[in-house]
């Protein structure tokens, strides 16, 4: 029986896997695209994907992980809505010998509590956005308003840090207001409206830095409703490179975005396949690239290339 089992195990590299995916929700176009691509890749690879939408709540993610552990899934994908509070449930997954792969956001738990993390260098993304503004205003005074991502999430923390690092030493650029828009269009619009009101109509707001394109798209609406020209009166720089930011760029209403690939699942499934086949340990962090796009980079063409990817 031993030989039979080992033969079965050896040929079962492609054995059907059940993988639990705790997704944050669908707060942005980017998140929707990540979900679409993850489902597609699971399908292509014959993976039985158990999908749980947490509606932005950490307690729902923790519940989902406990349910996956109880089901005895082969592996877990987790896009952690915030960076803290994961130790106990990740310990439970480790106890159950279920590998966890983080997608697009990080946790502050120790690295031995997850197999690997797939994501971008979030600090670098903020720095690319900040450097673009430094180069664009070229020494002229510029008051910036900032729409932060979800409070306590690693992208909100790191993208703020990166942007501030880039503008350090350029005293002409000042962040005058900064508040979370929770990565959504609706909140982005609401908070931008409050910024415009607080700044007496927004006449002295030179630029908006939004931690994602969806908040920027919402803010663009607010800027227009205030009678100002987004992309001209108020420069707009954000992150994700979703189709609708390219649509805004093509209309001259947005200026720059830093690309974040929504395909985090590909590298995650590859790392899991290798690990589950023969114990190959992946790097602890599998980094995806961050590319700057501006109005000079054929925004209409970029929109066309992305519009059918499930955003
Ligand atoms: O930028 C945003 C999504 O976690 C880096 O989450 C990701 C961010 C992304 O809501 O659109």
TrEMBL record:
Record's signal peptide: 1-16
Disordered: annotated span: 290-311
Domain Periplasmic binding protein intervals: 19-276
Keyword annotations: Signal
InterPro entries: Peripla_BP_I, SBP_2_dom, YtfQ_transport
UniProt main location, coarse: other
Gene, per the UniProt record: ytfQ
Organism, scientific name: Aquibium pacificus
Family label: Belongs to the bacterial solute-binding protein 2 family.
Record protein name field: Galactofuranose ABC transporter, galactofuranose-binding protein YtfQ
Compartment(s) where it occurs, according to its Swiss-Prot or TrEMBL record: Cell envelope
Basic and acidic residues biased stretches: 302-311
């Amino acid at each position: 029986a031993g030989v039979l089992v080992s033969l079965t195990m050896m040929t079962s590299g492609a054995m059907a896997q059940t993988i639990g995916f705790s997704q944050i929700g669908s707060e942005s176009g980017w998140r929707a695209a990540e979900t679409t691509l993850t489902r597609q890749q699971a399908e292509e690879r014959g993976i039985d994907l158990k999908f749980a939408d947490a509606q932005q709540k950490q307690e729902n993610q923790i519940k989902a992980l406990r349910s996956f552990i109880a089901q005895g899934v082969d592996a877990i994908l987790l896009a952690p809505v915030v960076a803290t509070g994961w130790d106990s449930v990740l310990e439970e997954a480790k106890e159950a010998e279920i590998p966890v792969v983080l997608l697009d956001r990080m946790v502050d738990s120790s690295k031995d509590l997850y197999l690997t993390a797939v994501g971008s260098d979030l600090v670098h993304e903020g720095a690319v956005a900040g450097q673009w503004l430094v180069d664009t205003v070229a020494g002229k005074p510029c008051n910036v308003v900032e729409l932060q991502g979800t409070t306590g999430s690693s992208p909100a923390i790191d993208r703020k840090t990166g942007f501030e690092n880039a503008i350090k030493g350029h005293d002409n650029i000042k962040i005058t207001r900064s508040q979370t828009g929770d990565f959504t269009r609706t909140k982005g619009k609401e908070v931008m409206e409050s910024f415009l009101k607080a700044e007496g109509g927004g006449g002295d707001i030179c630029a908006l830095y939004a931690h994602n394109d969806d908040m920027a798209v919402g803010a663009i609406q607010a800027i227009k409703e205030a009678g100002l020209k987004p992309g001209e009166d108020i420069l707009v720089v954000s992150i994700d490179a979703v189709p609708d930011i390219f649509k805004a760029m093509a209309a001259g209403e947005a200026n720059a975005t830093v690309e974040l690939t929504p395909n985090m699942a590909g590298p995650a499934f590859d790392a899991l396949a290798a690990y589950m086949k023969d114990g190959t340990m992946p790097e602890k962090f599998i980094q995806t690239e961050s590319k700057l796009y501006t109005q000079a980079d054929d925004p209409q063409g970029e929109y066309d290339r992305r519009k059918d990817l499930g955003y």
